[in-house]
Amino acid sequence: MSEGANREVHPAVFVLDKRGHPLDLCHPARARRLLAAGRAVVHRHTPFVIRLKDRSAADCVVNGVVIGIDPGSKHTGLAVFTDHDGSRAGRYAIQLDHRGALIRDRLASRAALRRGRRSRNLRYRTPRFLNRTKPKGWLAPSLRHRVDTTMSQVVRLTRWAPVRAVQVERVSFDTCALSAGKSLEGAEYQQGTLAGYEVREYLLATWGRTCAYCGASGVPLNLDHLHPRSRGGSDRISNLTLACIRCNQAKNATPVEVFLKDRPALLAKILKQAKAPLRDAAAVNATRWALWRALEATGLSVHTASGGRTKWNRSRTGAAKSHTLDALHVGHLENVTAWPSKVLVVKATGRGTYARTRPDRYGFPRLRLPRTKQVKGFTTGDLVRATVPTGKKAGVHTGRVAVRSTGSFNITTRHGTVQGISHRHVHLLQRADGYGYTTHPETRHHATFPPPPEGGGLHAGGIR
């Protein structure tokens, strides 16, 4: 498919019938006409959902949509698209930002505090750390969070759109395809159109799409062996890196220790990174089956694919690398005709804390929080719009609110935090649901590097 055939479109609007059943998505212009004519009302602000007042699902022909999911450790991409005989048109895009790292750090801090109390003999109850059992399929809270938040967004989308199937990337990197001489499906990974794509995607993610020797980005990158094959080096992942054409030719068949003998700091960094554990990849691999089982439990038709297939699809359509575009290219497809120009960024923020105090630097409480969370009808985390007529803060501010018992609120917008907004100027748009919402444009630049030749394997110029 030629690059010019792809086009960016406005994100569609979710539509419900008069009984709250999902209908096919519509264009924003049509939604504005329905609202202006009084035929629809706003059902939800973000994502924007309207509800028709004079139409039911029985009166409409509903074609349905498909959800594409690209799971990640820090971010997960979700795309809502229509699929007609392999031709996809993206209608809505969501980037879900997880907070698994924050949960892990807080659990580690809690464990350290508890160990401190035990060592100081301050425990007031019998220790329970030797009589606990974990159920089958147990996941750490930081990992379970990734599954739960992804499923939360999928369930919400099924309430607002007529979802008929789910395409999910179950494995980021096909480990069998990474090891020479092993395959999952016969000779497909060795000689078919996907050959080499698992290795390439893995290396691009590991080395940040930059040259390991000079740090150049946005240029064609070659696959380079740290220990040359002519000197006995292997094709194992730990012996592969990325290099621009100039550095690759300068290094040639020289071992990396000799090539970088005048730059010991860079040499140590490269050797460390080549063998560094991929914590993020481990988190995705640990949760992939739990996510798949949760999706199967919804009763939807669930189809799985690998990250190598996604990359191969993007190379054919000329799409850029992003979480939401990866979600749009998951699975088997013929072409992609359009994708949304804007992405809704959904950040997991939580619903607050049970703590009623704030400690100082020594751990002693310095202030107490009120028991009542609602002030003047607002709760911290609500989506609001403040229209301030005069003063230094004059203007319209839309974002999440942080309430104060004095009635002077703080509003966090996409441009920063505005402090000291009176509750009299604040209008509620949407109740807090544990997520923060912003939008940003979809990645506009297309893939710079053309795909390698059909069936390309591991060789000096094999990665682009």
CA-atom Rg in angstroms = 26 Å
Mean pLDDT: 84
Helix content: 25-40%
Question: How many strands in all?
Answer: 24
Total helical segments:
12
Question: Overall 3D geometry?
Answer: globular
Structure class: alpha/beta
Q: How can the largest sheet be summarized?
A: 9 strands, mixed
As a percent range, the share of strand residues is 25-35%
Terminal CA distance reads: 18 Å
What does this structure look like?
Helix 2 packs antiparallel against helix 3. This protein has twelve helices and 24 strands. Helices cover 27% and strands 29% of the residues. With 464 residues, it is an alpha/beta fold. The chain is globular, with a radius of gyration of 26 Å. The longest helix is centred in the N-terminal third of the chain and has 20 residues. Strands 1, 6, 7, 8, 9, 12, 13, 14 and 24 form a nine-stranded mixed beta sheet that branches. Strands 22-21-20-19-23 form a five-stranded antiparallel beta sheet, with no helix packed on it. Strands 3-2-5-4 form a four-stranded mixed beta sheet, with helices on both faces. The N terminus and C terminus are likely disordered.
Question: Gist?
Answer:
The protein is an alpha/beta fold and 464 residues long. Helices cover 27% and strands 29% of the residues. It has helices at residues 28-36, 100-119, 141-160, 175-178, 188-191, 197-206, 245-251, 256-259, 264-274, 279-297, 307-317, 323-328, and strands spanning 7-9, 13-16, 22-26, 40-44, 49-52, 65-70, 75-84, 87-97, 163-171, 221-225, 240-244, 301-306, 335-340, 342-348, 357-359, 365-368, 374-375, 378-379, 383-388, 395-402, 408-413, 416-422, 426-430, 435-441.
